[in-house]
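User: I'm designing a mutation panel for Ribonuclease HII and want to avoid disrupting the core. Could you give me a predicted structure to guide residue selection? Please restate the sequence first so the numbering is unambiguous.

Assistant: Good idea. Sequence first, for numbering, then the predicted structure tokens:
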Amino acid sequence: MLEYEQALWNQHYRLIAGVDEVGRGCLFGDVVAAAVILPPGRMIEEINDSKKLTASKRERLYEEIMECALAVGIGQVDSAMIDKINIKQAARLAMKKAVEQLDVQPDHLLIDAEKIDCDIKQLSIIHGDALSQSIAAASIVAKVTRDRMCLHWDTDFPEYGIAIHKGYATKQHREAILEYGPCPMHRKSFLGRLLNVQEQFLF
């Protein structure tokens, strides 16, 4: 998990930020990104792609990452902007915002399968959250951050069950949208086929 970081350390880069996002495939809510700079040489046991970890382990690792990180930045883009510019561009924008929120300027970025519009040197790594500790740390921070946001969204829109499925297209979520219609936080551009089915039932 430190192969990419070690190669950059060997080139005298010290402030390496891992960058990742979560929520790209959701029907509801913001896409959230994190940028994390860990101390050079620091190894965190059990760190991995956030999708491969239990919720309790993500929470524990989140606390460890936040405690030892040199800097953490969070970026988010809401559903209205996702509908306006498309999810790929929104994910990139959230990542850029996360980097801009770092308290210190990174020397180099390691990014999970994307490119960010900035002047900082960067490397895009396919499946980076399973190959780079820095990216995995960012994936954990982004996932825990968004999951906590989902708890707040659930209180505002309890009929959709956001706290359970986190906005993804589960059967429960799709049925709730058909029953209650979309709310302002739903990504309308993601709901075309589902709403067309609803119209067929109505008309």
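For picking mutation sites, this is relevant: The radius of gyration is 18 Å. Strands lie at 16-22, 31-37, 71-77, 108-112, 121-125.
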